[in-house]
Amino acid sequence: MVHGIRTQDGRRLTVEEYGDPDGTPVVLLHDTPGCRLGVVPRDVVAARPHIRFIAYDRPGYGDSDRLPGRRVADAARDVAELAGTLGLGRFSVLGHSGGAPHALACAALLPSRVRRAAVLASPAPPDARDLSWFDGMAESHVEEFTRALTDPLAFAGRLAARAADIRRDPAQLLVSLRDGLTDSDRRIVSDPAIGEMLLRAYREALRGSSYGWLDDDLALLSDWGFDPAAVIRPVLLWHGAQDRFSPVGHFTWLADRIPRVRPVLQQDTGHFGALEALPAVLDWLCAPPRRTTSKQTTS
After folding, report:
1. Please, what is the Cα angle at 32 between 29 and 33, to 5 degrees?
2. Nearest CA-CA partner of 72 in 241, 233, 219, 288
3. In angstroms, rounded to a whole number, what is the distance separating the alpha carbons of residues 125 and 72?
4. What gap in Å lies between CA 109 and CA 196, rounded to an integer?
5. Measured between alpha carbons, how far is 172 from 52 in angstroms, rounded to an integer?
6. How close are the terminal C-alpha atoms of the chain, in Å?
7. What is the pLDDT of residues 9-43, one digit of tens each?
8. DSSP-assigned letter for residue 288
9. Is 65 helix (H, G, I), strand (E, B) or coil?
C-alpha cells in the first residue's frame, strides 16, 4: 500500500507498507541515492510473513517533498511523525549505506520508540576523531565527496546531470560505481531480482529531480546532529570487510563507540553483501524481548 502523509511543517512524505499489517513493524531507511522500493528484496519479504515493513522516500526523493539543508538527525523527526500517523507504537529500524546513519539517528533520538536498530555498511561521521575518513574508499566516491565539500554548486550541477542520465538508463549508476564493486558485489547485483530492484529504485528515486541525492550527500558530509555514543538502544552493526564505499575503518570507529553494539564483520564480502545478510538481520530485529528480572529492562 502506497500513501502520503503530511508532516507538521506541511511536507509530504511518500510511504509504502507491505507484509503483514498486524506484524512486527520495521521501518526501512533506504540507500543514497534510493527510495522506498530498494531496501528489501521481494523474496526476503515473502519469507518473513510476520513482519510489517514500512518504507518511505526521504525528502527530495520520489514524491516526497524536499527539505533543503536537512541533517541526518532530521530523519528521526520524520520517522516519529510517520510512526505516529500509522499508529506503530514501538518499532525497529533498518538502514543500509546512506540510510544507515539515518537509522542510527532514530535509535539515538527516539529511544522510547525504537526497540532495535540494524545499521548496515554505514559510513562514520565526517568529523570522526582518529579516523582517516577517505582511507580505503573507491576513487569515484573520494572524488564525489571532495567535490561536494570544495565546490557544492558545481557538485549540484554535476549531480543533476548524472541524475538525468540515470533517469534515461538507471544502469548508468551501477556502471559509475564499478571501481568500488568487489567480485562479491558484482555477483550480487547481477542477480536478476536484485538488479531489477535496484534499477527500479534508482529510476523512482530520481524521477523528479536530484535534490534527494544532493541533500543526502551534504547531510552525510556535515554535522549529523547527534552523537553515535549517545545511542542507548541495541544496535546490530553489519559490515563487509571488503567494502570500498564505506571502508572497514568506518565500521571499527562506530563499533568502538556505540554502547550496546553487536558488531558483525563479514570477511568475504563488500558493500552489497548486506542484501544477503538481511534474513539474519531481520530475525535479530524481530526477535521477541528476553525475559528479565524486575531490576532490568527488556531489549
Report:
1. 115
2. 219
3. 10
4. 34
5. 32
6. 30
7. 999 999 999 999 999 999 999 999 999 998 999 99
8. P
9. coil
